[in-house]
Amino acid sequence: MKRWNVYVTNEIPKPALDMLEEYCDIEVNRSGQVLSKVQLIDKVQGRDAVLSLLTDSIDAEVMEAAKGVKIFANYAVGYNNLDIPAATERGIMLSNTPGVLTDTTAEMAWALLFSTARRVAESDKYTRMDKFKGWGPMLFLGQDVMNKTVGVIGAGRIGLSFAKRAKAFDMKVLYTSTAANPQFEQATGGEFVSLKELLQASDFVSIHTPLLPETFHLIGENEFKLMKKSAILINTSRGPVVDELALVKALQAGEIWGAGLDVYEWEPALAEGLKELDNTVLCPHIASATFDTRTKMGIIAVSNILAAARGELPPNCLNSEVYQSIFSK
């Protein structure tokens, strides 16, 4: 196998980089900062492969600069940062890292749910500021989780993993998706309903749908008005699924009780007023941030590159039709 020249757009766990470096010549952006468009265009030139992150916009302009690149291996499950038609047109393979972060992301959604419901972040800040002067019957009253109704938007792998855990708290599970999912229902006891019904009946709403044209601003002003005033919204999917300005207004007006967010519409920027709200728990897109998961993601991304370098179809190729055009010549 010829040693490929590979660029890695940001530092990933060492075991994955070691695996890649054994077979390829690599350069890694170790600044910890996301590359600008100009920097990215400069760095992808003359490479055989690029290991990209979800923070990198791999569009037609970048691909035009990457004349020799055979594959962009995305270090993420989601791939809304990749222009698949543009890559296919140019004979460039794309891949992602599915499956590996399913349970980790579901766990993070539950962490946000509990933290918001029981006002953990707010009370932690209060205690650190030496405001705690003793137990009080009205101090930081929150929401119970046991025996409540949870609505799951999106019945894919992560939504299923999230919903399975609701059984431990004797919760009623409602879900909505593009179609009813018998596997989801069998594993969770969930009931398939419309989005409107889910929003009206749920005490907690957790979003697990990919960002697609039809899911952009899926939850906005009208949807918040349907929700219970005691409801909590959780989002670990993609920021633009929620109209963030409408969310701020709903939280300010008390249309919903709280929100736990790991993703944002204009990430890393937050909608004006969001960070000032006490009824939110805000995390910096860390749903997959465990040692095990991030390492596994890196190994999968590297495995996709090494398969391509051997002339094989990458196991997680998103546009496999390109493979024949590259390696059948």
**Helix/strand order:** EHEHEHEHEHHEHEHEHEHEHEEHH
Give the overall pLDDT as a whole number: 96
What's the helical proportion of residues?
A: 25-40%
Count of DSSP strands: 12
- Total count of helical runs of at least 4 residues: 13
> What characterizes the major β-sheet?
7 strands, parallel
Structural class: alpha/beta
Radius of gyration of CA atoms, rounded to a whole number: 22 Å
Percent range for β-strand residues = 5-15%
Molecular shape: globular
Distance between the termini: 17 Å
Regions with little confidence, pLDDT below 50 for 5+ residues: none
Strand order of the largest sheet: 8-7-6-9-10-11-12
Give a verbal description of the structure.
- This protein is α/β, with parallel strands linked by helices and 329 residues long.
- The chain contains 13 helices and twelve strands.
- It has helices at residues 14-23, 37-44, 60-65, 84-89, 102-117, 120-128, 157-166, 182-188, 195-201, 221-226, 244-253, 291-309, 321-327, and strands at residues 5-8, 25-28, 49-53, 71-75, 93-95, 149-153, 172-176, 191-192, 204-207, 232-235, 258-261, 280-282.
- The strands form two sheets. A seven-stranded parallel beta sheet has the order 8-7-6-9-10-11-12, sandwiched between helices. Strands 2-1-3-4-5 form a five-stranded parallel beta sheet.
- α3 (60-65) links the parallel β3 and β4.
- α5 crosses α7.
- The longest helix has 19 residues, at 291-309.
- The two termini are 17 Å apart.
- The mean pLDDT is 96.
